[in-house]
Amino acid sequence: MSATPQSIPTDIFGKPVNPQKGDSYLTHDRGILSWLLTLDHKRIGLMYMVVILASFLLGGIFAIVLRTMLAMPGANQANHASYTDEQLAQISVNNDFYNQAFTLHGAVMVFMFIIPAIPAILGNFVLPMMLGAKDVAFPKLNLLSYYCWVGGGLFFVWVLGKGILNTIFPGMVEFWGSGGLDTGWTFYTPYSTSTGTAATAAVAGVFILGFSSILTGVNFIATIHTLRPKDMGWFQMPLFVWGLYATAIMQVLATPVLAITLMLLLAERMLGIGIFDPALGGDPVLFQHFFWFYSHPAVYIMIVPAMGIISEIMSVFSRKRIFGYAFIACSSVCIAIIAFIVWGHHMFTSGQSDLLNAIFSFLTMSVAIPSAIKIFNWLATMYKGAIVLETPMLYAMGFIWLFTIGGLTGVYLAALSIDMHVHDTYFIVAHFHYVMVGSMMFGLLAGMSYWWPKMFGKMYHEGWSKVAAILIFAGFNLTFFIQFIAGSLGMPRRYATYPPEFAIYHHISTLGSYILATGLFIVLGVWIHSLVRGRPAPANPWGANSLEWHTKSPPLHANFEKTPLATDPYDFDDWRWDENVGGYVMNENTHHEEKTAQTK
Amino acid sequence: MGSGMLIVLAQTRGIGMPEPVSTFASEVDWLWNFVTIVSVFFTALNLGLMAYFVYRYRQKDRNDLPHGQHHNTTLEITWSVIPLIIVLAIFVWGFRGYLSMATPPANSLEFMATTWKWAWEFTYPNGFKTNELHVPADKPIQVVLESRDVIHAFYVPEFRTKRDIVPGRYNKIWFQVDSEPNGVAFNGAIETETLPDGSKKYTDHGAKKYRLYCAEYCGTNHSKMQAYVYIHTQEGYNAWLAAASNWQEGLPPVQVGQKLYSLKGCNTCHSLDGSRGNGPSWKNLFGYPQMLKSGDSKVADEAFIRQAILEPNSQGIVGYQPVMPKLNLKESDVSALIAFIKSQSDKGPYPQTSPALKNGR
Lengths: 600, 361
What we know:
Oligomer: heterodimer
Strand content of chain A: under 5%
Shape of chain A: globular
Mean pLDDT of chain A: 90
Order of helices and strands of chain B: HHHEEEEEEEEHEEEEHHEEHHH
């Protein structure tokens, strides 16, 4: 990094790209319509990036709102005695606001950020290129899935946001009607069928969002089956592709169950058909079975693609072939299968039969094995490697840390007698934030910083990027580790107010959330700075060998100049560091020439 | 490592857990500590290896390409089988602990917990009802759980157990607290205290008090849906129950009504100071006209209030959702509540005597 690299774009051989021929997918067509109606998987990926990161911002703002409310004196019941009646009345209004706020935070984060983020942004952008293809199998379906997302998402945010705005500006209810949602993202019946908030409309929004997920899943399965290069077998695929494949299977098989469940919920709310509401002869626990039959696989939909990203990064930044390729690939599929048979562990305290509880506890324990396999293989990849601590690797190592803690605390929850104590407490809040947010968010940030140069053809500021990664890591642990302790001491979740003995834990957690937010805003700053002033990215800044690095940054509209041959994604021998380019270049006279000669 | 592990396991209390009170606590906390040791070990192992590898194998030259081993079936099987054995052991112990929680002994003393948004009502074997759960120590206690509206949950952290309260089905929870390790005693007397509002409070100073939470999200005042569980000795329990069952005796109806106001959970929705809740405030409710959703306006007299209590939501006051639950009240309770509501209005017969108004609440 000592010499100043060239400030002009270069191709994979390190040769300057002729500015006249410098066409890329970003400049191929111009005008707003060329984006809105594009069938290019890369542009669709970027459009997903904009809307999904906007959702992340919205969900994040409400996370800060929640944490701030919980740190304010009104949340601590110790002080109530000294309060005036007006203040006490205000606290009751605050409870309603809090309930809507945590519902918005949870629902927006789960349905609009965590579930779609990695497949829709990075999967769309990278998957076809990893396969050496020009696009996904069904480009029009891809665009349709995007508009399902935008339509469902806008509707959902409109409905939930109205409730929040009505609380702040009570007069507006005359203008745009009531709305809001206070059921939590889980929509548990009979609360959700009896609440005065707009559960029906919100459920319809999630229903539409679900179709986006199904269509993306179908598209990825078809792409992986049909668009691999001739000489790329299943076990020559990059591990991120395996992760996306396992995810797509879960999306296609599980999401329709959510759609059916939501339809039944709508039927009950609108037509009064008794399915879940005991007042109408239904069974509320049946809803929980249906809901978790989707939502448990959904948890793995969130994490499995992140694991794929970590596998790529661990190998590339250890400069060494991934350890135990087949075990990592199969463990992804294994997790996808187990995902479908552990849903009952969300209902250990619901009164379901002891036999069912035992079976679900046993099956849940088995998730530990594929998870352990992945972690140990990643560590073995680092062993005797040549480890490069660039930003993507920092996030990947952070992922391993958070996933280790998240995974092991899952063992506590799977153990029946312990779960009776910590179920529905902050212990579980901390656990699923470690697994879903910590791990998935670190996977996304690792992937974004890894593929960013490819996506935009610009490098980012490495120093600030590392500062952000460290702040996010520290802030995350401060926010959520303390919640394990609050939870084991008995602090119930979804509480707007709490007994005074828990105040200290809430204050520390809130402090952590501010640090976490600061780190995330620095990332945003680093990205914007990169787009505006970043130096041109070389074709292969990290020396990776999967096919997306075999084209210039940013790629052509058609991805590659000529259809590439399959490569071994974890063999980095052909790439040599070039100080002038600031990245890795391929020796034009050796392997590549021979290989392309063979194809002709 | 070995001796440290034994010391931690020998403690009955789980690391970072609340006071171990029920008979389940020792088994849960033992397993908790075991899982914690396993977790700390594997976390330290993973992070230690990661830190060591980063230190030892940092890249020195951009073109370093180590070609180490990248496959080892023996290793893969080892690190699959060891965690498998550990989690299976945890499963078995967890299930054994759970089975004892799930099976109430046949000789349990039975109570009933009735819940609604956002209140608890406990029914004692003699039929007495109150919003606190008082039980004897050294005896298995079973609580039948009933919900009138949405799902709630019964959770006492010190007891290490929890159960959802699902409308339309009866779940049960049981526990036992032994008096000796928890210092439960009885000093031979129940202290009777007359509160400023004229109602009576009965205290057994040897009893232990634990907080009972609703642990399943149930709406606006979910976090306020708390109650207390008191553990007495058998004598203390008998004495307390005898005294408390008699609480209405000798009290004027207004004071009975005031007591019912909090006992029955009316206070979660109806304020006494005019502030807006889920239901209309009782301040100056009686004797004033109410706008109804039908478009009529009716003066809230005794008959109006009686109908509002016995047939909730049947009249529909403008500006309020129909969320009031139907309560199971004796005729004398209804009269007492009406007397109390009247006392809160300046159109009532005795505004000056209202203790609540004098206190400003």
